[in-house]
Amino acid sequence: MKRLSKLVLLSALGALTLIGCNPAGKKSDKGGALSSSAAEKVYVAPGEHDEFYAFVSGGFSGQLAVYGLPSGRLFKVIPVFSQDAEKAWGYNEETKPMLNTSYGFVPWDDSHHPDISQTAGELDGRYVFINANNTPRIAKIDLTTFETTEIIEVPNSAGNHSSSFVTENTEYVVAGTRFSVPVPQRDMPISEYKGNFKGALSFISVNPEDGGMDVKFQLLMPGFNYDLSHPGRGKSHGWFFFTTYNTEEASTLLEVNASQNDKDFIAAVNWKKIEEYVNNGGGKMMPANYAHNVYDEHTHTATSTMKKEVLVVDPSEVPGAVYLLPTPKSPHGCDVDPSGEYIVGNGKLSANLTVHSFTKMLDAIENKKFDGDAYGIPILNFDSVLAGTVEQPGLGPLHTEFDGKGNAYTTFFISSEVVKWKLGTWDVVDRKSTYYSVGHLMIPGGNSQKPFGKYVLAMNKITKDRYLPTGPEVTQSAQLYDITGEKMELLLDFPTVGEPHYAAGIPADIIKPNSKKIFKLEENKHKYAALSEADTKVVRNGKEVHVYMTMIRSHFSPDNIEGIKVGDKVYFHITNLEQDYDVPHGVSMIGANTSELLIMPGQTESFVWEPKQPGVWPFYCTDFCSALHQEMQGYVRVSPA
Ligand code: CUK
Ligand code: CUA
């Protein structure tokens, strides 16, 4: 059986589902009794630090979770495309604008792919970027504060999935639409999809000085679905690769429509060439509404601006900028090895892994080895760009990462395993089961020229019997493997915040020295800051009242407030006067229809309270801050209107 047909694959999927996703069908096999050396390898003694940070996407929770590796300990959940009552993110007046979009306030999303900023092809630890699939956005998290500091909406897109991967000097963070849609959006028959719907690939520039994002240009591609993407690196720096499916341009993806073509494509985009074209005045401005939200560290306040137009480029305008590489059976992952030579396309309905060669691609372009241009874009001859094939390594290949030592690791969703194979020889070296149905995997630095090939983290879709039951839904999970030897060794299962799609890992030593300890009070430019107790006040403006308040161990100032009436809208602006590391205070107000605030040293945050009844109402500090934490309280007197 040289090639498994799709039918065989699908029935294999059915069979595996019946036996609980365990490919071997061995219900009792839990990955073997782990050796004591496995325990030692993940044991981080009390007070010791982990060697790596892992930033694991929260999928449909819209968050980004921060873990230590090898321990698997959870340190923080960073709210990104979500409201988080713990940190008041999306609840306080300062951060609400971060969740603004052209559709209004959208406090949820589906975040899949974090990627860490790079300089000269290596992780630099300044930022993590992550995509929002549902209402297309890209967020930037500042790794000095571990807070989301910028969110830009991506116009002309829908299902922002092949995102957010960065080029090797973080020139761009790139976003590709999953769904093709009418561009510009308009009322039209769905049946006229073909030729009319477009797939926008967005190149979002990142300012090298301040990190500011901007949609530099959008490439309006044929109406395919765009799945994953990866930048070229090293020799292929300047190119970006996108997997596609539904190259039939069908409006319904019932199998009969979308999987007719034996091969879909990896689209290779020479972004340097397009950049040059637009820098010389190429492309055209098109009306588009999209939000650009920026959080300022000094005012501690976000502003949301609505942008009105975007620069678009049609591939036909820039000959030689876009090519299509035929790739079997609905490629999902699209991964470029650390040298930039190999582009791995994981056809999820294919039994084999197809690897393209960048060198051969350039050669095929030069010698015009094309098989037509059905979409107005040259289609390169498959055999002319093929570097090699990994034959039948498993079922349902999804994603590949690299250890920097010439090995690649690919996940197989259907057969629930990670397979290690050699670049260049295409030989399978090792395989290990995952529990179960693995999606992505991650090697710290695996998206760069310099991977730290010590561990691979597999992120699983299904856990079934691996953990204590918690009702119909069991925890999501990740599994850590040691990859320092010839054979992989499973070290650890650990539960994760749902749903872990992908992760980005980095040595902790790159991040730790720059991690912010406090915000300096003298740099606090918040409009309503009170920088000392002497500056506190209550200011009435009609029915609107602004309370300028401070907090420090262990009291609020003022802590007794009178003169408030039913029907007032009371803004509490509270400044944490502490200038010590790890001394936030919280505050909450009885009946306030918001979350508490958790305010970092030197920071100011605000919430609104609209008292409904006369009385004397308490507020208190919510974060256990000192021996007198329980004394940290106050009263507001509310009189009839
Ligand atoms: S996708 Cu999740 S397994 Cu959204 Cu990166 Cu492939
Ligand atoms: Cu301040 Cu508890």
From TrEMBL:
<keyword id="KW-0186">Copper</keyword>
<dbReference type="InterPro" id="IPR051403">
    <property type="entry name" value="NosZ/Cyto_c_oxidase_sub2"/>
</dbReference>
<dbReference type="InterPro" id="IPR001505">
    <property type="entry name" value="Copper_CuA"/>
</dbReference>
<dbReference type="InterPro" id="IPR015943">
    <property type="entry name" value="WD40/YVTN_repeat-like_dom_sf"/>
</dbReference>
<dbReference type="InterPro" id="IPR011045">
    <property type="entry name" value="N2O_reductase_N"/>
</dbReference>
<protein>
    <submittedName>
        <fullName>Nitrous oxide reductase</fullName>
    </submittedName>
</protein>
<dbReference type="InterPro" id="IPR008972">
    <property type="entry name" value="Cupredoxin"/>
</dbReference>
<feature type="signal peptide">
    <location>
        <begin position="1"/>
        <end position="20"/>
    </location>
</feature>
<dbReference type="InterPro" id="IPR026468">
    <property type="entry name" value="Nitrous_oxide_Rdtase_Sec-dep"/>
</dbReference>
<dbReference type="InterPro" id="IPR041114">
    <property type="entry name" value="Nos_propeller"/>
</dbReference>
<dbReference type="GO" id="GO:0005507">
    <property type="term" value="F:copper ion binding"/>
</dbReference>
<keyword id="KW-0732">Signal</keyword>
<dbReference type="GO" id="GO:0030313">
    <property type="term" value="C:cell envelope"/>
</dbReference>
<dbReference type="Pfam" id="PF18764">
    <property type="entry name" value="nos_propeller"/>
</dbReference>
<keyword id="KW-0479">Metal-binding</keyword>
